Amino acid sequence: MAWMEETRERRAAPRNLWSDVRSVVMFGVNYGPEEDPRPLLSRPDRAAISVYARHRDYHDLIKGRLKDVATRFAARAGEDVKVFVDTAPVMEKPLAAAAGLGWQGKHTNLVSKDFGSWLFLGSLFTTAELDFDAPERDHCGSCRACLDACPTAAFPAPYQIDARRCLSYLTIEHKGRIDPALRPAFGNRIYGCDDCLAACPWNKFAVAASEMKLKARDDLKEPEIGFFLTLDDATFRTFFSGSPVKRIGRVRFVRNVLIAAGNSGRTALVPACRSLLADEAVEVRAMAVWALSRLLSRADFLTLYTLRNPGDDPEVEFEWQLAGGTPCI
Asked: Which candidate in 36, 57, 68, 86 is catalytic?
């Protein structure tokens, strides 16, 4: 198993989460990739999916393992336990740092001497009174590699992140319109972003994940953007069954893919983008307009502009006006 040695911290739980908690045990699971994910960013016809989402959903895998550990622990200790894997308002990164698994780097993520930036975190809350481990000290020094690697300048200062500019947040959590000024920075990223993690020099000590269920699917290592533009809801759900990508739904996913298509410069994607102008989802139609504005010549796009439905949703009309008429920002 790819578990790191468990570490402990006393009385770390918020009192409003579980009033009787006395100790927290933190776990880290290595999901290191077999190769640096950044070279894929230079291939505009291919889609870049974050390393952590190229395999089975880690929530299900790790929570299942933690429940097994919790069951054995509770039986031996005679105490209550509860486990979390990104499923509750638990500050996992500060807890993991306090428990000695690593330290929070300047990119705000946990960094380990042994596994670099590639760690999933889980926690076990218990009523048992346990000894605690010493926290890990910060080893970032004067390094700025992660800060300088961010394509959208999402770090206003070391150890601070502006989620409104973070591509992981924007491609996964954010609903609705993506700031037009940030879209070119997406490049071919369609789900998450690994730039700040991959840039960390401590990754030189990292090893590829040994857990087979955390090995990347071949069809998610460097998938074609064009294929993802053809997915209807049923095909999307089938293709991403068991993947964390499925959680964001087809609409948000295709919105991201259209941004990548618009950034690709590949006119071969025009027919697929144009077909999405008739999609049922407003977000998809809107981003299809933006993608076409980037892929078509000015003359061809203006011709398409004259054929648009001006009575469409305001979100779609916004994109038409932004690209072809008078910007209405």
From this structure: 86
